[in-house]
């Protein structure tokens, strides 16, 4: 079991990572038991079916309210958000109640946003169940989507604790393993060339990642993320580097229709694009084709999904949260581990998008 600490300007909290970590939830809640008047767990249909019984037993939780929401991006919608708030009100949650998010990044973002806004903010704990959630469960970004843009309605609301039991990962489908691993790759590219080299050398197939390697990759990713969040909790500056690959990635997710392409698949394509753009604009020395081949070997589709309109993607990228006054700001790399935030004009971005589409072509 590993314990990390996330320190932000508003609070600090532990992240427990390892097989069997769920047992720590009871202990953690008991310490605060006099303080919590009630506990509401928000989970999704898939996770509930697979793990809710064992979660309740292992966590030692008996008198809890459980709210089950649809799986995947469908959870991050206004009707589901509203429904969770109604459940909280109907069950008389008060300002001393606790929300537990039990699921992947979608459930975590939703439950965190419910916690951030219910009675202007109550406490919550993240119990992530996906690889991707090594990223989403820490850092306090919580949100739901809007048809016009990903995570557009949200808040910064840090959890009280993150209890990451890696045993849950055993039931993840291959596609979700791949999705989550994209954020591991991102963490390496933006901060640590040796970590990136290690991934390139060690990982030739996502099935072959051992438990020890997974623990190492996830804790390394969490500490990289934590270091950015500690310095810039509300994304006034360097936290934007965690958005590497996301400007195009989010545009793809929104244009394809939320949930059609997984977050990690979209980010993988977005990272390839941002690396190519970094070569063009900053002279990044990087073997792009080698990286693309590696991604393909791991099962990623590296091209923009067919049928997405270039102009609409550009419009979405212009509306990205990093844009200021309509100016697109893009996370690029000067070198591996050295990100920069750079203003890019629409003409340059459109020209490179066209080139990228031509060069990368289609996967199938
Ligand atoms: N807040 C942040 O900082 C942050 C960071 C990265 C991503 N995100 C968001 O996270 C979301 C993606 O997260 P995700 O990939 O975890 O998505 P998810 O929560 O949709 O989970 C993916 C799928 O796996 C299923 N699942 C979850 N745990 C499982 C398990 N243990 N076994 C079997 N199936 C399981 C879910 O039901 C779902 O169908 C996106 O909405 C993205 O925008 C947020
Ligand atoms: O924590 C961050 O900051 C990130 O950018 C992490 C991203 O992986 C994550 O997808 C995040 O939700 C994106 O944030 P957004 O502000 O672009 O919606
Ligand atoms: Zn992400």
UniProtKB/TrEMBL annotation:
Where is NAD(+) bound in this sequence? 71-76, 105-109, 129-130, 141, 150
Annotated compartments? Cytoplasm
Q: What biological-process terms (Gene Ontology) are attached? A: amino acid biosynthetic process; aromatic amino acid family biosynthetic process; chorismate biosynthetic process
What this protein catalyses is:
7-phospho-2-dehydro-3-deoxy-D-arabino-heptonate = 3-dehydroquinate + phosphate
Cofactor remark: Binds 1 divalent metal cation per subunit. Can use either Co(2+) or Zn(2+).
Annotated keywords: Amino-acid biosynthesis, Aromatic amino acid biosynthesis, Cobalt, Cytoplasm, Lyase, Metal-binding, NAD, Nucleotide-binding, Zinc
Q: Which GO terms describe its molecular function?
A: 3-dehydroquinate synthase activity; metal ion binding; nucleotide binding
**Mind telling me which Gene3D superfamilies this protein's record contains?**
3.40.50.1970, Dehydroquinate synthase-like - alpha domain
Q: What does this protein do?
A: Catalyzes the conversion of 3-deoxy-D-arabino-heptulosonate 7-phosphate (DAHP) to dehydroquinate (DHQ).
Q: Which cofactor does it need?
A: Zn(2+); NAD(+); Co(2+)
What is the recorded name of this protein?
3-dehydroquinate synthase
The source's domain of life comes to: Bacteria
- Listed binding positions for Zn(2+) are 183, 246, 263
Chain ranges of the 3-dehydroquinate synthase C-terminal domain: 180-323
Look up the EC number in the record and give it: 4.2.3.4
CDD domains, from UniProt?
A: DHQS (cd08195)
Query: What does the sequence similarity comment in the record state about its family?
Result: Belongs to the sugar phosphate cyclases superfamily. Dehydroquinate synthase family.
Task: Cite the Pfam families for this sequence.
Answer: DHQ_synthase, DHQS_C
Which biological pathway?
Metabolic intermediate biosynthesis; chorismate biosynthesis; chorismate from D-erythrose 4-phosphate and phosphoenolpyruvate: step 2/7
Q: Where does the record place the 3-dehydroquinate synthase N-terminal domain?
A: 68-178
């Amino acid at each position: 079991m590993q314990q990390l600490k996330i320190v932000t300007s508003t609070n600090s909290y532990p992240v427990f990572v390892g097989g069997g970590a769920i047992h720590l939830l009871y202990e953690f809640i008991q310490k605060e038991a006099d303080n919590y008047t009630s506990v509401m767990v928000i989970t999704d249909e898939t996770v509930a079916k697979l793990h809710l019984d064992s979660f309740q037993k292992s966590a030692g939780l008996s008198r809890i309210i459980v709210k089950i929401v649809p799986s995947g991006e469908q959870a991050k919608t206004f009707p589901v958000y509203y429904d969770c708030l109604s459940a909280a009100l109907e069950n008389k949650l008060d300002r001393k109640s606790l929300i537990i998010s039990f699921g992947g990044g979608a459930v975590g973002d939703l439950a965190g946003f419910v916690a951030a806004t219910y009675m202007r903010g109550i406490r919550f704990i993240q119990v992530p169940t996906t690889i991707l959630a090594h990223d989403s469960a820490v850092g306090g970004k919580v949100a739901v989507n809007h048809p016009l843009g990903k995570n557009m309605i949200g808040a910064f609301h840090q959890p009280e604790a993150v209890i990451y039991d890696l045993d849950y990962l055993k039931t993840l489908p291959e596609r979700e393993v791949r999705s989550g691993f994209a954020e591991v790759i991102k963490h390496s590219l933006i901060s640590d060339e040796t970590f990136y080299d290690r991934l390139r050398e060690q990982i030739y197939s996502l099935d072959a990642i051992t438990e020890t390697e997974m623990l190492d990759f996830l804790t390394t990713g969490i500490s990289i993320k934590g270091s950015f969040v500690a310095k810039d909790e509300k994304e006034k500056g360097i936290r934007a580097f965690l958005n590497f690959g996301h400007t195009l990635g989010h545009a793809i997710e929104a244009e394809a229709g939320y949930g059609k392409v997984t977050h990690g698949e979209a980010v993988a394509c977005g990272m390839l694009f941002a690396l190519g753009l970094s070569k063009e604009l900053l002279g990044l020395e990087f073997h792009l084709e080698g990286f693309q081949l590696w991604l393909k070997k791991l099962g990623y589709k590296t091209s923009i999904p067919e049928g997405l309109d270039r102009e609409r993607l550009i419009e979405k990228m212009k509306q990205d949260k990093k844009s200021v006054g309509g100016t697109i700001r893009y996370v690029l790399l000067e070198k591996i581990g050295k990100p920069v935030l750079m203003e890019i004009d629409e003409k340059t971005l459109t020209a490179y998008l066209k080139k990228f589409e031509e060069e990368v072509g289609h996967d199938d």
